[in-house]
Amino acid sequence: MENITENKTGQVITPSQLLEHWQGHRRSTRKVIAAFPEKELFTHTIGGMRPFSAMVSELLAIAVPGLKEIVGGNTSEFKEDMDFGNSKAKILELWDEATVEIDALWQQIAPERFQEYIKLFGQYEGTVQSSLFYFIDNEIHHRGQGYVYLRSLGVEPPLFYDRD
To answer: Are the C-beta atoms of residues 21 and 27 closer than 8 Å to each other?
Structure first.
């Protein structure tokens, strides 16, 4: 019996739509970063979690380096300890630079590559598509932690659905 829920075209979302979806999440995460009081961005923790700046460092270590590996095929070491100099402005600057790089690298991924099997950072196995979904899911997860931190600091977080 034929699976009637299977997409007959093999595509539900275009690569450009997926990029816009991710960049929408990145715009939301940027708003969360900007909402933090500067000192607390680097020091505030709850329940043994890392400061939000460390979570952002991880996100930055995944996005562009991961895309560079997908595009170029050269395995790189995962390095998430970035020195922001305790400066929110520096984090936002690096975030914005990564946003531009993501757009440029994305254009170098042919649509047929999304189902290609890869091993990112020499250890994370899956398809290009599943890796990209991980990048997005991981960002959403950490942004959620940022919302909890902001609320605990008495700061109203940005609307979670505002991706403009």
So the answer is: no
Per-residue burial over 139-153, b if 16 or more Cβ lie within 10 Å, else e, is beebbebbbebbeee
Alpha-carbon dihedral angle through residues 20, 26, 31, 35, given to the nearest 10 degrees: 170
- Name the DSSP class of 13: S
pLDDT digit string (tens) for the chain, length 164 residues: 444 444 455 678 999 999 999 999 999 999 999 999 999 999 999 999 999 999 999 999 999 999 999 999 888 888 888 999 999 999 999 999 999 999 999 999 999 999 999 999 999 999 999 999 999 999 999 999 999 999 999 999 999 888 99
Q: Where are the beta strands (DSSP E) in 31-123?
A: 117-120
Q: Sketch out the chain's domains with CATH numbers.
A: 15-75+83-152 (1.20.120.450)
Residue 61 has which token pair? 């270590």
- Count of all residues that appear for the chain in the document: 164
Place of tokens 């997908």: 70
Closest CA to 56 of 151, 139, 157, 152: 139
Give the whole-angstrom CA distance, residue 107 versus residue 16.
Answer: 9
